[in-house]
Amino acid sequence: PRFPVPACGGHGSLVSPLLQERSARLRRWYELMMENKEELARIITAENGKPLKEAQGEITYSASFLEWFAEEARRIYGDVIPASAKDRRVLVLKQPVGVAAIITPWNFPSAMITRKVGAALAAGCTVVVKPAEDTPLSALALGELANQAGIPAGVYNVVPCSRQQTAAVGEVLCTDPLVSKISFTGSTATGKILLKHAAGTVKRVSMELGGHAPFIVFDSANVDQAVAGALASKYRNSGQTCVCTNRFLVQKGIHDEFVEKFAKAIDKELHVGNGFDAKTTQGPLINEKAVEKVEKHIKDAVSQGASVVTGGKRHSLGKNFFEPTLLTNVTTKMLCTQEETFGPLAPVIRFETEAEAVAIANAANVGLAGYFYSQDPAQIWRVAEQLEVGMVGVNEGIISSAECPFGGVKESGLGREGSKYGIDEYLEIKYVCFGGL
Asked: Which chain positions lie within coiled-coil regions (predicted)?
C-alpha cells in the first residue's frame, strides 16, 4: 500500500538512494509530460471542449506539480524535541498515510490529478485515481507516461467508470478500510456525501469544493487593469473553474466606466467556437445541464430587473455553446449571486462603501477565492484580511501556481494543495519517545 518509507542514507548522505529514486522518477514523469504536451492537450480539448491554447496551458501547469513535488520529496523533515527527562530523547517522524483515493473533476482533467498525485507519491503513498466520467482519457494518458517514467506498477492506478457507476465507486473508495486518505475536488454537495462515507473509518480527508468568488472593483482601482483581470478570471474555460469570479461588485464612482469597458473587451477579445480552432477562446460548456443552469440564472435575473449588456443566449453554433454574457442592475436576491453558475455569466452589483462590499462578499457559505482591485495600500491590507476566502488576488485575476497553497474555507473545503504545504496532506506525524538512555 505504500512506497517504502525512506531511511537516512549512509556514508554521510542526507537523502537516501530510495528517496532520490522517487524524486528522479517524478522528475522524469514531468519531463515526459512536457515532451508530449501537444498530444496531452489535444486529449483535453477532445474530452471537454477547452480551447487548445488553454489545454496546452493546463498541461504546463499540470506538469509543474510533478516538477515541484519531485523536489519536495527530498524535504520531508522530521524533528528532534528537547526532552523533559535526561534519560530520554524525543523524535518526530513523518511517514506516508498509505493508499490515497484521488477523485477528480472534468474541468481540469490533468492538473487536478497531478496536483494531488504528485504530493501523494512524493510522500510515499500509492494512489487510486477515479477521474470524472466525462474525462477518463487524460487520466489514462498520465498513467501511460507514469509507466514510461518508471513509476512502479501498482503505485498509480486509474479506475474509470460510467456516470451510472460513479456514486458506487466513490462510496467504495471512501469506505474501504485499505484506503487511508481521500482527496476530492468537485461540488460541495458531493463533498459532503463523501465526508459522510469517509467518517465510518475515520479517513484522512482533503476537499477542494465549490466556490462563489467575489471580484471587487473599488473607486481607487486602475479600471483597465481591472477589466483585463475580470476577463481572465471570469471567462477562462468558459467560466467553468472553481476559482472563476461569480459575482462582480463595482463601486458606484467607476461602475459605468467599468461596465462599458468590460462589455467592449468581451465583444472584442472573446471568440466562441470549436476548441481546435486557433481563434477560439470560448469552447462549449460540458453538457446540456450546464447550459440550462446559465439560462436559468439569466432568466431569473432579468425577471427581477437585471439588464443584459452583451450576450444572454445560446450561441448560433448550437448544442452546448453559450454567448459570454454580462448583466448589470444585479441584486443579491438573484440566483446568480446566491449560487455558483459555472458558466460564462458575469453579473455586476453596484455598491457604495467598502464595508458594504466586504459584507456582500462574505455573505456566501463558501470561501475559495476572492479578488479585488484597489490602489489604496491601507484598503488593500484591510480587505485582504477581511475577505473570508482561502485565496486572495489583489490586482490579479489569475493566482494559481504550483508554489502556492490552493484551498478554501467555510464549505469550500479542507486542507491545501500545491506548495510546501500540499505534501503534509499525505503524511502522518509519529512521535517516538526513546527512553532508558
From this structure: none
Which cell goes with 142?
A: 498520465
Task: Find where cell 474555507 sits.
Answer: 409
How far apart (Å, rounded) are the C-alpha atoms in residues 304 and 429? Answer: 54
Could you tell me if 338 and 427 lie in one domain? no
Displacement of CA 285 from its chain's centroid (Å): 18
Q: What is the domain range of residue 128?
A: 17-209+412-434
Asked if 422 contacts 416 with a C-beta cutoff of 8 angstroms, the reply is: yes
Same-domain check for residues 193 and 228: no
Pair (227, 192) in one structural domain: no
138 alpha-carbon distance from chain centroid: 16
367 has which bridge partners?
A: 409
pTM of the complete model: 0.94
Q: Indicate the pLDDT class of residue 10, thresholds 50, 70 and 90.
A: very low
The predicted pLDDT at position 318 comes to 87
Write down the pLDDT at residue 151: 95
What pLDDT, on the 0 to 100 scale, is given for residue 16?
55
Q: Is the pLDDT of residue 3 over 70?
A: no
- State the catalytic residues: 208, 242
